[in-house]
Structure formats: C-alpha cells, structure tokens
Write a structure and sequence with these properties.
By secondary structure, the protein is of the alpha+beta class. Helix 2 runs antiparallel to helix 12, helix 9 packs across helix 11 and helix 9 packs parallel to helix 12.
Length: 408
Amino acid sequence: MNMILLALRNVLRNRHRSLATVLAIAAGLTAINLFAGYIANVYSGLQIQAVAGERLGHLTIYKEGMLLEGKLHPKRYMFSADEAARLRRVVEQTGGVRLVSPRVGISGMASNGNASTIFIGEGVVASDAAILRGKLAEGAGGKLDPAQKYGVAASADLAKLLNYKIGSTVTLMTSTIDGQANAMDAQIVDIFNTGNVNTNDKYLVLPLGLTQMLLDTEGAERFVVLLDDAAQTLAKRAELQAALAAAGFRVEIKTWKELSSFYTQVRGLFDMIFAFIASIVFVIAAMSIANTISMTVIERTREIGTLRALGLRTLGVIRLFALEAGWLALGGIALGLAATLLLAAVVNRAGISYVPPNSSYAVDLLVDLDWARIAGVAAVVLVLALLAALLPSLKAARRGIVDALAFA
C-alpha cells in the first residue's frame, strides 16, 4: 500500500507532464470508445434489417442441394405440401421457436398496362410477415393484408417507375416451375423501402398463396425460423439439424449472418477500421507513458540511487515506476470513460442523420455503449502502460548506486 501511494505522489509531483499524458490517453480512448459505440449501433441496426427487413429470420432451412442445384432445377429441391407440414411440426416441437414460415422466391415482369419492368420478390404468409416485422420502422419491410388474397407490397422505387399507388392494379407475368408462361392481376396494398438501392426498384412481397398460383406449385422453397432468443442461433441450428435428420429430412440450415452478405461485408470493414484506429491509440498511449516515465527516470536518477542505497532492490524500482505508469493509465481511462459517456449523450440527442453507402434512406447517427470493447481497450492500455514503463525503469534500476548518486 505504501508503494502504491508513493507512486501516486510521484505522479502528482509533476502535474503538467502527468496531465498532458493523461489527456493524450483520454483523448485516444474517447475516440475509440465512441467509434466502438457507433459500430455497435450499426451492427444492431444491420441485424434488425437482416432479420426483419430482409425477412431472413434467424435460421433458414433448405432442402439439401437447393442453394446450388436448385437454381437450375427448383422443382426437384422444393418441399412438397406434405413435407412442409411434417417439417414444421418437427421444428416447432424442438421448442424455443417463435415462428416457422414457408417461403417461395419469384421473379418476372410487372406491368401497369403501359410500361413493364422486371421484378424479384418472395411469397410469404401475411400473418407471419407481421410477426417477423416486429418493431421495424414504419415504411420498411413491406406489409401484407391477410384479408387480401391478391394484395402485394411494392418497393418504393418500383412504385415510382410504374406510377403505382395504394390500390393500383399490377399485372404480374412469370414462368411456372415447369417453364410455362403465367400471368395474374394483383393489387398494391403497401409501398415500402427495402433499404437497399439495388433492390428498391424491383422488389415485391406477395402472399404465399398468390406466389404458388403464379408458379403453379403447392410446395415451399425454404422455411424461415424466428427464435425466441437470437443468442441461441448456432445452438438451435445444430439441434434442428439433428432433429430433422432423425425425421428423415436432408436439409441445409443457414443463419441470417450467412445469408446477409451486406451485414458480413460491412462488419468486416468496420472491424478492420476499428483495429487500425485502436492500434494507433495504443501506440500513442504507450509512447506517451514511455516518454513520461523516461523523463521522470532521468530527473530522479539521484533519488533512485538514494533509494537503492537504502535497500530498495532492482525489482522494487521497476515496481515503483510500473505503478506510476499504472496511475497515469488509470487516470486516462477514467477521464476517457467520462468523456465517452458525455459525448455519447450529446451525439445521441443531436438528431444527426446520414445516408449510408448502398442505402436508400437516411438513418440516425447514434452511439451505443459497447462495454465489452470499452473494457477490452482499457485493459490493453493498462497492460501497455506497464510494459512501456519496463525499459526505462529497468535501465534506472541497473545503474550503479555510486553513479546514480553522482548524477548531475
């Protein structure tokens, strides 16, 4: 305890230098903590967009081979009506499942009678889509009316291209799974923003029954599973894989992360940027502390000689300066945390918004508190501080007592 208090008094002896070091560490930590909070908020938003906005749920079940061979022979790899009913029962019996929803993908031409353009989309059960939306923002994800068998939701830019409004009639032309031409009229019941510029001019959400009539099938292409606890996604996948195999199904189960390439790419980019910024902050913190300790060692050479003459061993000298470095680091960490909390609150209340790359609408600039990263960064800075003090303190401890006392 005496050594700890002595180290603190030594840090306070040169307040200006210590303050400059603490401020440098705090500034770096504040910047990295705010960025960590920003990307945590981005990841959370991207997860909601993938699970609810893209209607991926937490898990998607395909018949084995559907993802590759199914593109050429979709009929061969679809679940029949009987298989779909049995699969749903097996999945629901495992527990922890909030929703099991069949899906069918579709593409073709959409027309308003005067002009036509391509569309892509999927058939969903209207009531299931409402559950999957959850707390998704108004105007995103697409809403279907369970009472309207032929009601479809159109993406915003597609609606602009064909001058669609709520209540407009759209003619859908596509091929059945056997390759024959088919067409039906539907009614626009919702206009929504997909959130992605690549799909916002061509996407439709259709009732499952209407999609099956257009494709002339009673089967399902895949099943989307929404879990009660998103944290159990990987564990539940393994459980479902085993349960379905025991029931005679050969399936592939993908998580929402595996299916959302946009989420994966954005997360990889931000993680790399975070690592780069963190490395800069760590170098600044280590060099600031090393410089402060080195100058302190030079100024206190005679004091160190006196302590050595009084019986302080080499390890004691190293411990003393390591504790001083620790105090500097803790001061910077505490100040950085306080600045992080203050600035995060300011940013979150500022109402700043921006349009991200590849997005079709503005999002709010918000900063979460990513306590795991904050704690990890603080721990690394503390360790680096102790290591930065090692070399100068070791050199001081190895200096001869006579030479140290004679130092001018």
